[in-house]
## 1
Amino acid sequence: MQDNYQQKILGIIGGGQLGRMVIQSAINYNIDIHILDPDENAPCRHICHDFSHGKLTDYDTVYAFGKGCDVITIEIENVNTEALEQLAKEGKKVFPQPEIIRLIQDKREQKQFYKENNIPTADFILTDSKADVLANADFLPAVNKLGKEGYDGRGVQVLKSEEDLDKAFEAPGLLEKLIDFDKEIAVIVSRNEHGELVAFPPVECAFHPTANLVEFLFAPAQISDEIGEEAIKVAKDVIIKLDMIGILAVEMFVTKSGEILVNEIAPRPHNSGHHTIEANFTSQFEQHLRAVMGMPLGNTGLRMPAAMVNLLGEDGFTGDAVVEGMDEAMKEKGIFIHLYGKKITKPFRKMGHVTILEENVEALKAKALKVKDSIKIKA
Amino acid sequence: MQDNYQQKILGIIGGGQLGRMVIQSAINYNIDIHILDPDENAPCRHICHDFSHGKLTDYDTVYAFGKGCDVITIEIENVNTEALEQLAKEGKKVFPQPEIIRLIQDKREQKQFYKENNIPTADFILTDSKADVLANADFLPAVNKLGKEGYDGRGVQVLKSEEDLDKAFEAPGLLEKLIDFDKEIAVIVSRNEHGELVAFPPVECAFHPTANLVEFLFAPAQISDEIGEEAIKVAKDVIIKLDMIGILAVEMFVTKSGEILVNEIAPRPHNSGHHTIEANFTSQFEQHLRAVMGMPLGNTGLRMPAAMVNLLGEDGFTGDAVVEGMDEAMKEKGIFIHLYGKKITKPFRKMGHVTILEENVEALKAKALKVKDSIKIKA
């Protein structure tokens, strides 16, 4: 049998850090990557075979870009799905499928999908306006989420009591019961056209208190085997019910009573899987590539306990990025720095991440804290 | 302290697979890489910041290329060292230093360097011509090596008895006593401007019987601790006596009496270190980058026993490369395929490599053999 993966061009809509890490994997398989991004200096700019500069939400731009590729995928959900649908109709492979991207673009549809498919999730009500939220004050404490265009912590507002109600969104969104969870975990699953379905071991996420971004991640999650198996089962159930090809990150709450509730899903490589580059036998980026290109899926076993720390732009600094304090970290065993090639830093912008490997889980947490305190992105 | 590695441009003379794997590491540090290569379709072509097409042995080409960089390194020894010397004089950082590259370009000078510096090596005599070799027939069995331009198995001839004498080289070279060795091992050492000096654990090489190329590599080498420590001591001694900055691969024989003899050295990432990408905490490619850029050197500990198999072009096939039999290997745990992006295959051309990780050393050898038998590069 001839393996002709290398004869196919993979187009990625979006050229940020996720695309960049996919390219780092694709180099090993001689797969030519074309990138579309609105930023001339996108992280993928210099390491892809072909770079197109254009708007991801514009039909003509996305369609023209896709025509030059054999397989098309995304690294961000906010893209023109009509163009992707047309490309799929014309015989291009588009993974994740356009209708799934459209579903995930709207958190309201996402929640309804869970409900219709018996996927456990927090109770919710759809709201069309601020007035609608106010009228449902008895549903608090809750999280008010914008239906569309929330990203990286934007479009999410916790409403603990009526005093918070003035923060409610005016646009269509939803109110979700605030879950007094024990842990937040994530499971990444992937599925290819040949029906293979593989899950990564669950990881545990710790969020930044104000920026609503993953601040630390630990693998494996400190949960019981039963909860771990249940989380994998739920994540597999989601990708099967979506009938999706590609990689899907499923973020879940573990409630204090041990219940699993799906929080959010992302049909692409995800922040909760960055550690897999060094910590697992197959990285999420390679797995994504394998899934969309129709290659066999790889083994997802964890090689060593790992932590991941996002390197966010320091609050108060905007401008040409300067990384401080890397030297100490570089000397340590098992510390892996990834900078994303973004010229400009802004408060809380994702500028890079660090993976820490360490057999001893206590030492792992201490090292992760130390890395977070020593490496700073300023301007 | 500000870490300004990212503000420096690294130029690599040569854009083959070694440069390609350096770039894969450099992406993590936002280091811009410029490449010079005579092949328009060199493996680094599409993944570097700037690609110059030109002859590596031409003074003007190398000089002009180097002027646009801050730090200059090599991935092949056959380069114009006069241009590099001029660049160093003008304040560019050139690592390895030009005089070391020149020394290593000539195996005769290399051997004399060992002798003058008490570095253990096989006995030898310099020969200027075929007639010279014939006149020294009593030195057989020996290896006849060309002084210059031997590479990837070319320029080396085993002369077991007088019957082999017609294979002797006509050009200046040397005759080296044929060593009835127990094992061939290699130690990669690296050294930066700050005086840091770090060794990778010794590995064991098994050569292809006719092509004189590494066919299998195993890490760790199956040698005693004493021999391992001695090998590291010898390798460190070589880089110190060369006063070299960068990464140096030291290939050695372990004789049946347990003696260590230096065979060849290479002042760049080397085939005997490819497994380090997945098997060690720091890869040789990242270590090379760290050493030449003046970054702290990384921990070289082995994470897991590893084997490495070169994917050589099948004998009898020349033309557009087609990889066969990848699927089975991709399904297995701990198998990592690296293709080098070379369009054209030729018999025994290095087209890629596979690293195999496995705790059980016996299983490791079996898996390495299986990979070698299943993945084929044809045309």
Note: Chain A has a mean pLDDT of 94.
## 2
Amino acid sequence: MAVENASGRALRVGIAGLGTVGVGVVRLLAENRDILLQHCPWPIEVTAVSARDRRKNRDVDLSKFDWCDDPVALADHPKVDVVVEVIGGSGGAAKALIERAIAKGKHVVTANKALLAEHGTALARSAEQAGVALAYEAAVAGGIPIIKSMREGLAANRIEHVYGILNGTCNYILTQMRETGREFADVLAEAQQLGYAEADPSFDVDGIDAAHKLSILTAVAFGCEVDFAGIKISGIRNVSAMDIEYASELGYRIKLLGLSRLIDQGAERRIEQRVHACMVPQNALIAKVDGVYNAVVTQGNFVGQNVAIGRGAGQGPTASAVVSDLMDIARGRILPAFSAPADTLKKIPAAPEGSHVGPFYIRTMVVDRPGVIAEVAAIMRDENVSLESMIQRARSPGDRVPVVFTTHETSQAQVSRVVQKLGKVSAVVEPPHVMSIEQLS
Amino acid sequence: MAVENASGRALRVGIAGLGTVGVGVVRLLAENRDILLQHCPWPIEVTAVSARDRRKNRDVDLSKFDWCDDPVALADHPKVDVVVEVIGGSGGAAKALIERAIAKGKHVVTANKALLAEHGTALARSAEQAGVALAYEAAVAGGIPIIKSMREGLAANRIEHVYGILNGTCNYILTQMRETGREFADVLAEAQQLGYAEADPSFDVDGIDAAHKLSILTAVAFGCEVDFAGIKISGIRNVSAMDIEYASELGYRIKLLGLSRLIDQGAERRIEQRVHACMVPQNALIAKVDGVYNAVVTQGNFVGQNVAIGRGAGQGPTASAVVSDLMDIARGRILPAFSAPADTLKKIPAAPEGSHVGPFYIRTMVVDRPGVIAEVAAIMRDENVSLESMIQRARSPGDRVPVVFTTHETSQAQVSRVVQKLGKVSAVVEPPHVMSIEQLS
């Protein structure tokens, strides 16, 4: 499994993409050179790079590297043993480069969660057949070595579930909303100014980025094929300052979580994957992970609960993850991408829509008039939804007032029917806002 | 690096010690057999075992394993490729077995922190020379894959410091003391009844077990030789219910931490290793790690802060760690024990006694009479110790009352001089209790 190269004296790296991450990798390899030399059997050297604009000032010395205008050319470059793909995107140049590199028998290190979410299983299979690494520690949870932990450190366990805060932008926005009482749009605009959110924020705030990462964690956790399409995804646009206040009052925090669970009923196995804003008990460890930090919680049948927390994005953490993959390759440590060989990855069907069962938070806005609460409560009763608590305040006849319910264990399908019926009640003046309550510890 | 064995069809394991951990390994290998088969190139099979009492009922089927009365015989057993040493102790049979196994070219997996703390560097060197693994994930922080995280996942970083809750017994006792207001001796007795503390608790409550683990983390973090003797160690026997109350009042929690830091002043490099009870801000993540959980926090120059939390002991977590090491060996993944080759491990001197600088908590018990506070305050002033706060309460002339000070940045040496002088003040009726305040985030 050792790396072969012409000189035999270095692991030679070609980097495709010189944005924040690519430049971070160049910087790390230079600044921590002594550390790497102590730990690796041979030096890790950048030999070639590719990016869109050759003249852009990137504050690092690129003069010693060969320049390829076409990133795919890195796969054919004679002085490249490993391709680092940090271009991004689920197709285009990134995909072409990785496929070409594998075809040429070169190792691949990537930070590209979108690509793995869409094409992970197929790429893992090709890499295995070619005997090369497809490594992607940087794709999930930034600097947290969670892929290594799950694929190796916790690999002896039957994983029961995995969940986490997988998107730093959303976590930053929700933290700011809670700390300042401001609304989503306002905090998003500020996050964009500060560079914590993209100009087009939808990949982050609509939960897609978190879902990409969750699909990868799921495959590693359960030894199954990547199933991004099987994830139920929603984001944080609908979380209001009012919900955050109610969450605090009820003893919860609101987090965007990705949650994945194996439902094993004998012959019937299903995977439930969800990405959405939800309430978690304010004393749960994950409730305390704020700002741009990510966290991943795994539950294994022998190890119990493990929690890993760290920076989810940014130049330093991502470069740390990319170079740890390069070190694994230099050390001859190559495993199947999703831990189990691609041919053994199971196809486990997604749990059917609406099957999730748990407590829920339902906030309605009603015109306060006699009989409204009775009408709403009757709908809950008719759908067999058992209430755990109700909050109504600031009543003054004719006002629009929020009425908040929390339920005992209820299926998502029941809650959906309740919401549909509530929409037909004339006193209910806007669509109810629903969030699951996750009783995490 | 692949494992060689006669049959070529299995990784054959000999387990020395059939206490909680050894039995856990047997159970895990049986119960999670399907998981292991999916992830490993060949089965991991126990072939031989050794323990003191052959007839003891251990609730697992041992009938298919060869029995060795002498654990060291496992090293010579023809059907053993890997020895799992879970006897414990820094010498005796454990040491003899490991040395013999290495000499016979067999891999070693151990949970023995005492042995590695005392003899780690030498054993690492022999294992490397013999080309075998010396793996010990279970020795530090139980089920948390912290050795793998640091040795591989965060290996690209210059580690600045590492600290953690490394002893679950102490953390359980301190958590109980806080939650119930009871005194140490009382809670310890209960923990012993519940099996959370040993009959002879001194390894745990005096900080020695945590120091064993810290010495190993330090070697991995800084690429240096294991230096257990260089650790300043104290435990939790002196923590009183009163200190815990004051900690809460001041916004802190009391934790037994192991802390290790590289002090790099150009040519002058020192390592500061400390194990002691200390105060941490109650909003720091580590303050929220309660009960039998362990936590390790690392700070790397690129990755920033990483936190790993999990169960620090017990059958399941320890077996999970041992088997993850076995899987690494089965997968042909063998690294130098402390990540860097033994010959490159640096000898970095310990920071001199008393050199630690930070804020401190000092609690004195005084007889309340006019002028006492002035006298005590004058001692602080004379030693240039700058006070951050003072708490004195429940005064009634002639009473014994606690007087609590917290200081600004002060050296341990200054604080020691203050304590010495306080001991000579007649109104100070018992030795002052001192704890460092660690401003962690």
Note: The first strand of chain A starts at residue 11 and ends at 16.
